[in-house]
Write a structure and sequence with these properties.
Blueprint lengths: L1 H19 L5 E9 L6 H17 L2 E4 L2 E11 L7 H10 L4 E3 L4 H13 L4 E3 L14 E3 L4 H15 L4 E7 L3 H16 L3 E7 L7 H9 L4 E3 L4 H13 L6 E3 L6 H7 L6 E5 L10 H15 L2 H6 L8 H18 L6 H7 L4 E4 L2 E4 L11 E7 L4 E8 L3
Parallel strand pairs: 1-3, 1-4, 4-5, 5-6, 7-8, 7-9, 9-10, 10-11
Antiparallel strand pairs: 2-3, 11-14, 12-13, 14-15
Length: 392
């Protein structure tokens, strides 16, 4: 009897505390499908940071007069086409309602059938290969694609840098690099330029012979859309060789890893990007993101570490933020945040994001037509805006 009375007393005392908690109608889980290890871990972590920051701002949603909690669930796909399906299956087993990611087109394409079989919609943030959405009815994407990016970079090299011979170098079997080299080559040759192509096998650590091949070919630019791990090695060796040929690459090179690699050198490294934190003509949405995200990074040492040890805003962080907020917009258009309902809502989403307006075309791709060209500053260790460019 004493134990029963004691238990009743405890429960009565807890009632006011329980009443303080929010009464959630349910939980909607947003899966984060990104690399936290492997060749592209640096970029994957920065993209993920944008998603976590967005969740820190918007972690509930009102549907039909009821409040639902928004939770995130993360898996490490290592940007590997071999490991991506298992990582995707882990998110399926966690009953996620929608997936964000991934940094790395190959992993996105490898995971797409897993998500599709489970009727889970996915929103790519920076996976630029056109194959991500083509033939994948449940995959959407908020960034521009590699056919556009390849044209932009080819035009920049040919016209702005006045280069007529380009040397391309990408890893064998890697979808992102191979695709971007293909689009760059097609556009550069159409302009009247000459391309000398080369590839390297996975696991390569010495790039000096490849760099010498570029010299021997009389190349005016080296186009190498590789992972940051390989890029760091390549640039370090180019620095040792006092190589005078400028590098041009895609969005993966917008990383602190690249800045560290070119530190105190005469190397010129240009790359295309989705966002510029120093853009004077940025929207208020973008300016608010820059201010808030920097404060959020600096308030947590681990976040700062995952960002590369500084508070420079990578474009993929902005894309990660926009991917999360795009998912939220789709969720708001549903009755209860069910995965099938989210999939039905996504084609009609219109979201004014940090990286621009997000409206999807018939393939599930955002209608983006502007890229930022930047150069890595070897002294200040920051990105310097060069120009914006668009191919109509």
């Amino acid at each position: 009897m004493k134990k029963t009375l004691a238990l009743l007393l405890v429960l009565m005392l807890m009632l006011p505390i329980l009443a303080l908690g929010e009464d959630f109608a349910g939980t909607i889980t947003i899966g984060i499908f990104e690399p936290a290890s492997g060749d592209n871990a640096a970029g994957g972590k920065q993209e993920t940071l944008g998603m976590y920051y967005a969740n820190s701002l918007v972690n509930t949603v009102e549907l039909g007069g009821k409040t639902y909690k928004l939770e995130v669930s993360e898996v490490d796909n290592q940007t590997s086409a071999d490991k991506a399906p298992a990582a995707a299956q882990t998110l399926v087993s966690r009953n996620v309602n929608v997936v964000l990611g991934t940094y790395g087109s190959g992993a996105s394409m490898a995971a797409a059938p897993i998500f599709e079989a489970a009727n889970i919609p996915a929103i790519g943030a920076s996976c630029t290969n056109p194959g991500v959405t083509l033939g994948s009815p449940l995959y959407w994407r908020i960034c521009y694609t590699d056919d556009f990016q390849g044209d932009v970079l080819a035009n920049f090299a040919f016209s702005d840098l006045d280069v007529k011979v380009a040397y391309t170098l990408n890893m064998l079997g890697e979808d992102y690099g191979a695709g971007l080299v293909n689009y760059f080559t097609r556009a550069f040759e159409k302009l009247g330029g000459t391309v000398v192509a080369d590839t390297f096998p996975e696991g390569t650590s010495d790039f000096t012979a490849y760099l010498q091949n570029a010299v021997n070919a009389g190349a005016g630019v080296i186009f190498s859309p590789s992972s940051t791990t390989y890029a760091s090695l390549m640039l370090g060796q180019a620095k040792s060789m006092n190589l005078g040929i400028p590098f041009v690459a895609g969005d993966t090179w917008a990383s602190s890893v690249i800045l560290e690699a070119v530190q105190n050198s005469a190397l010129k490294v240009y790359f295309s990007d989705f966002f510029d934190e120093n853009n004077d003509e940025a929207s208020q949405v973008s300016k608010d993101f820059v201010t808030g995200f920097k404060a959020w990074l600096n308030a947590n040492p681990q976040n700062l570490t995952n960002n590369g040890g500084n508070d420079i805003i990578a474009a993929v962080s902005a894309l990660g933020y926009d991917a999360y907020m795009t998912a939220v917009e789709a969720i708001k258009a549903t009755e209860n945040g069910g995965k099938e309902q989210i999939a039905q809502a996504l084609p009609g989403v219109s979201y004014d994001g940090v990286t621009g307006m997000i409206v999807f075309d018939e393939n599930g791709d955002a209608k983006k037509d502007i890229a930022y060209i930047k150069i890595a500053d070897t002294e200040s260790l920051n990105y310097i805006f060069v120009t914006t460019t668009s191919i109509q």
